From TrEMBL:
Transmembrane region(s): none
Record Gene3D superfamilies: RNA Polymerase Primary Sigma Factor, Winged helix-like DNA-binding domain superfamily/Winged helix DNA-binding domain
UniProt keyword Transcription regulation present: yes
Name of the protein described by the UniProt record: RNA polymerase sigma-70 domain-containing protein
Chain ranges of the RNA polymerase sigma-70 region domain: 6-50, 62-134, 150-202
Lineage summary: Eukaryota, Viridiplantae, Streptophyta, Embryophyta, Tracheophyta
PANTHER family: RNA POLYMERASE SIGMA FACTOR RPO, RNA POLYMERASE SIGMA FACTOR SIGF, CHLOROPLASTIC
UniProt similarity note: Belongs to the sigma-70 factor family.
Record organism: Linum tenue
Keywords: DNA-binding, Sigma factor, Transcription, Transcription regulation
GO biological process: cellular response to light stimulus; DNA-templated transcription initiation
Amino acid sequence: MCMVFVLQEGSIGLMRSIEKFKPQAGCRFPSYAYWWIRQTIRKAIYQHSRTIRLPDNLYALLGKVIEAKRGCNREGNHDPSKEDIARKAGITVEKLEKLQFAARIPISMQQTVWTDQDTTFQEITADQGVMTPEVEVAKQLMRRHIRGLLTILSPRERQIIKLRFGIDDGKRVSLLEIGNMYGLCKERVRQLESRSLNKLRQCLGSHGLDAYTDLLV
């Protein structure tokens, strides 16, 4: 954080101290202004020093953790364990791990991977939202296979399963809505759905659908 920014925030704190200062309270102005300047600068650092801002209470805990590490170093423990740091900071190891996880500093995707090359993290990081051609083909085969398996059901059972799991258009329909379509009560539709799923389960092994297990993770 640049010095100009710190000076600007310090000036804001000074102006606030002037507005709020009450001589009759018996406090010296330099001491009062010092508190406001320090508080304003600290708050600005909390809000702007990170890409993802952390709550103020986490900064306070981070300060305790940093001081605990320094304390361990002063005692000759230059590689303190999480247990050592947590005990010295007065928190649990679990809380320390959550704090360290929340305080991670994100890396820019435009940052170069190696200092002597121009390759960025964006160029070598795979997009998890885009399926590879192999996975896309495998999922298409799986869908085709599942639709073929549905032929063992009666036309009504097949339609209920398709509607319940959105097999055709991706939109799942409730038991009540299906009941209104067929003039059935909600419980009867649930029974038909359960019976249809049992029929399908009995055929899973013989139809080789276990080959698609990895695609469902």
